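Lecture notes, part 5. Sequence design as translation. It can be helpful to think of inverse folding as translation between two languages: the language of shapes and the language of residues. The source text, in structure tokens, appears below.
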């Protein structure tokens, strides 16, 4: 597999998928897990900052092996390199849409890897699943990171435009990290801006607060609603609420969890 930096399109050949000899043991294990419950999806609540009402969830892939859980930060890059990301992405999307179909009023956010977004048939694949499941496309939000928009603007724009025309929304993920910058906001339309949790972690300093305030003002000026990630304390939640952030997500409100655990949550998670 060709090495590619974060956000780059990886040239993908069908033979890559079949080239088992080149795959490491972990890749082989991941391939086998794709058809089993070992590869699952957890759902983390997103709340309206003003009320604490659950308005959505983010779908996050989970992988359990006999040796213990493996972090997405390990197996997602592995899946990208080996081409398994297409099957993995489809599994996550199908699971996510079924989750949301059973839970009206809950929007579903699904992460999309650069490799997926670069594939010419990406938009068709999403539309196919949505139509088959008769799912309202306006309830689906696809989360993308900036690198791919910069490195492969033509294909990325084609896919994003086609899907937005169908009513699917897009969020720019990890805003405020090195991977997402202001220029991107000028060239692509986003329906949501996800502020990285590093911005929340910096809230205990004057500079950190200034940075977050300015970022929220920027989003306001562009008319893009903000979702702040990584909210872990009541103090952070209260600060972000009074600042006028639209949506909050983080361990304070709820960790990524199973369907059953999600269904036992109260409809409002505001505790501040
Ligand atoms: P991400 O999209 O930025 O997802 C948010 C990450 O922050 C998740 O890590 C989540 O569990 C974690 N998180 C949520 N709230 C808090 C909090 O309050 N504090 C802290 N410290 N962390 C919090 P996770 O699940 O380990 O996923 C890591 C990354 O893996 C994701 O980052 C995303 O880029 C990628 N990923 C996960 N699932 C998928 C998937 O199905 N497809 C693709 N393409 N990527 C995925
Ligand atoms: Ca995300
Ligand atoms: Ca993020
Ligand atoms: Ca991330």
């Amino acid at each position: 597999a060709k090495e590619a930096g974060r956000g780059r399109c990886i040239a993908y050949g069908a033979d890559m998928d079949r080239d088992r000899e080149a795959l490491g043991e972990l890749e082989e294990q991941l391939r086998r897990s794709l058809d089993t419950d070992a590869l699952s999806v957890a759902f983390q609540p997103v709340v309206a900052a003003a009320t604490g009402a659950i308005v959505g969830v983010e779908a996050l892939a989970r992988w359990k092996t006999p040796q213990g859980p493996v972090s997405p930060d390990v197996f997602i890059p592995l899946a990208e390199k080996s081409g398994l990301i297409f099957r993995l992405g489809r599994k996550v999307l199908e699971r996510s849409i079924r989750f949301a179909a059973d839970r009206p009023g809950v929007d579903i956010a699904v992460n999309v890897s650069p490799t997926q977004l670069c594939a010419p048939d990406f938009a068709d694949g999403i539309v196919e699943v949505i139509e088959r499941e008769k799912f309202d496309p306006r309830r689906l939000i696809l989360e993308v990171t900036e690198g791919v928009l910069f490195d492969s603007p033509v294909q990325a724009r084609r896919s994003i435009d086609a899907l937005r025309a169908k009513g699917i929304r897009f969020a720019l993920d990890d805003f405020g990290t090195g991977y997402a910058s202001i220029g991107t906001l000028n060239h692509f339309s986003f329906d949501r801006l996800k502020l990285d949790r590093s911005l929340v972690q910096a809230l205990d300093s004057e500079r950190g607060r200034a940075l977050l305030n300015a970022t929220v003002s920027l989003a306001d000026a562009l008319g893009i609603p903000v979702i702040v990630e990584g909210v872990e304390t009541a103090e952070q939640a209260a600060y972000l609420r009074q600042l006028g952030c639209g949506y909050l997500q983080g361990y304070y409100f709820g960790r990524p969890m199973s369907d059953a655990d999600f269904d036992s949550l109260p409809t409002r998670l505001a505790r501040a």
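The translated text above is only one of many valid answers, since several sequences can fold into similar shapes. The first strand starts at residue 39 and ends at 48.
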